[in-house]
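A protein record in our archive is deliberately plain, so that people and models can read it alike. The record that follows is passed on verbatim for readers who wish to inspect the format.
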Amino acid sequence: MPPIIYKIVDRPAWAAAVAAGRFDGAPVDLADGFVHFSTAEQVAETAARHFAGRDDLLLVAVDAAALGPALRFEPSRGGALFPHLYAALALDAVIRVDDLPLGPDGRHRFPELAA
């Protein structure tokens, strides 16, 4: 298991999470019954595929070990194992939150990621 996993979240959803003291998930997470995460190797493709052109985003880095057994790695795109959290994200598991701006080429500019 990678030590850090990542969640791309829009600013309003993250502000609501901070106010609530936990992140229950974006609409897609609520519909699927788990919170979608990506590893460092997966997150750029996730951004390009599901958040293209969005400039209101944050990248939330999470301590995977802090999530316990509610975190499962399950097959998704092309059979790759993606981290899925079957619980609300407790904010004390969050390591950092960074802006995820768009570059001049329209692709998101990521901070240095810990694998």
Summary: Helices lie at 11-20, 27-32, 43-50.
